[in-house]
From TrEMBL:
GO terms for molecular function: 2 iron, 2 sulfur cluster binding; metal ion binding; oxidoreductase activity. This is NAD(P)H-dependent oxidoreductase subunit E. Transmembrane segments: none annotated. It holds the Pfam family 2Fe-2S_thioredx. The keyword Phosphoprotein does not apply. [2Fe-2S] cluster binds at residues 79, 84, 121, 125. Belongs to the complex I 24 kDa subunit family. Keywords: 2Fe-2S, Iron, Iron-sulfur, Metal-binding. Binds 1 [2Fe-2S] cluster. The keyword Secreted does not apply. CDD domains: TRX_Fd_NuoE_FDH_gamma (cd03081). PANTHER family: BIFURCATING [FEFE] HYDROGENASE GAMMA SUBUNIT, NADH-QUINONE OXIDOREDUCTASE, E SUBUNIT. InterPro entries: NADP_DH_HndA-like, NuoE-like, NuoE_N, Thioredoxin-like_sf.
Length: 161
């Protein structure tokens, strides 16, 4: 992620708002580049696509996928849909909260190094429970496997355990 790009929302939008691209496609591209869609991008997006700011904001807020703030260095998205529930995802969620000291769906607070998010089906139902850790999919996750994955992720982003 390059934070300097967040201070240049016009250039950010110009780079991604090529003719024929939909708002959703542009939002994905911005989030892929920055890790989130900065609030300052709403106005130039509205101008570029001839939409109202409310329309752009409505799309961003409707889709749970789009973030409006930077993510924590370590982000865990745990599937809590039916197949994973039947394979113990709620017990895993309790373990994850106890192990990290964070709560699911509490957002990312300044200084927090881990963010926990509930999601509903990652397409790995036959290999549940499943989760994404910093964008990488993991299946058949046990508490022990989670602990190892988290330790490795913290090491990669240089966050103390
Ligand atoms: S229900 Fe969890 S991956 Fe589908």
């Amino acid at each position: 992620m390059d934070d300097s790009l967040a201070t240049a929302p016009d250039q950010l939008v110009q780079r991604h708002a090529q003719p024929g691209r939909s708002l959703i496609t542009i939002l994905h591209a911005i989030q892929d580049e920055l890790g989130y869609v900065p609030a300052a991008a709403v106005e130039p997006l509205a101008r570029a696509l001839n939409l109202s700011r409310a329309e752009v904001h409505g799309v961003i807020s409707y889709y749970h996928h789009f973030r409006t703030t930077p993510a924590a260095p370590v982000t865990v998205q745990l599937c809590r849909a039916e197949a994973c529930r039947s394979m113990g995802t709620e017990a895993l969620a309790q373990h994850i909260e106890a192990h990290t000291g964070c709560r699911f769906d509490a957002g990312h607070h300044d200084g927090a190094t881990v963010e926990l998010e509930s999601v509903y089906c990652l397409g790995q139902c036959a290999l549940s429970p499943a989760l994404m850790l910093n964008g990488t999919l993991h299946a058949r996750v046990s508490p022990q496997k989670f602990d190892a994955l988290l330790a490795a992720a913290r090491k990669r982003v240089e966050v103390p355990a």
